[in-house]
Amino acid sequence: MRMISRSIASLSAVLSLMCSSLPAYAWHDKTHLSVAEAAGFELWYSSAAPDVAKSKSEFRLAEEKNHYFSNNAGKEVDAAMVMEQVARYNKPDDEDGHLYGAIIGAVRAYQAVSASGKYAEYPLVFCSHYIGDLSMPLHNTPYDDFNKSRHSVNDGIIESNARNNIGFIQRNMEDIAIGNEADLAREIAIVANTSRRLGIKIRQEKRDMTKNEAYIQVTRSASLFKAVLKYVGKKTA
């Protein structure tokens, strides 16, 4: 398993409470923006838009399932599981969610629109957001009482300072090579498993993520999204 080994400094957190009846989000807006900007995405400023779309009732059922995978069975994620989810992209009738397949679905959507000669950036906006969600532990574990009560607090662990630490994220990013869809599925599974294991750990210890853990997680997302941008032929800043 690839690990980010550099030491990540502890930074201050913003804590906010969420009513458990509200839909679960992953990372607050500034954290999502920071992941996308660190990856060099030209439209980084739009990367919170999928949560905006999800907030409208007419879009919510189709979109929200793209943002998480509950993994109620507690299975190790592999490339086959990732690929099995792709057909469920944008499908509302999927209780467990299909975050992993949504990433590949968004990449395919970009490739299809780009091949048609039309403006194709918006699928990458969704892809950037999904890859951000991928590193959030509570979007890779069951949405139980622990998850509901601590979700928003963990979303906001680094929200107050993420925009000031883009360079820090970039310095700790790793190079990931993606040459085909199989490589992409494998890399999605790697990040998903690190997130799932951290989710299990904080449950067992009855605590929230540390700021150190949150920065390690978002750095994994930024690294993977930069690799996706290269894979689809986009220049990164």
Note down, in words, how this protein is organized.
The protein has a single domain, classed as P1 Nuclease (Orthogonal Bundle), CATH 1.10.575.10. The chain has ten helices and no strands. It has helices spanning 29-38, 49-54, 57-64, 79-85, 99-115, 121-134, 145-155, 166-171, 181-204, 211-231. Helix 1 crosses helix 6 (121-134) and helix 9 runs antiparallel to helix 10 (211-231). The longest helix has 24 residues, at 181-204. Residues 5-22 have low confidence and may be disordered.
Please write out the topology:
Blueprint: H1 29-38, H2 49-54, H3 57-64, H4 79-85, H5 99-115, H6 121-134, H7 145-155, H8 166-171, H9 181-204, H10 211-231
In short:
The chain has 237 residues and is mainly α. Helices cover 52% and strands 0% of the residues.
- Compressed to H and E, one letter per element, the order equals HHHHHHHHHH
CATH architecture descriptor: Orthogonal Bundle
Poorly predicted spans: 5-22
Distance between the termini: 28 Å
The helicity comes to 40-55%
Oligomerization: single chain
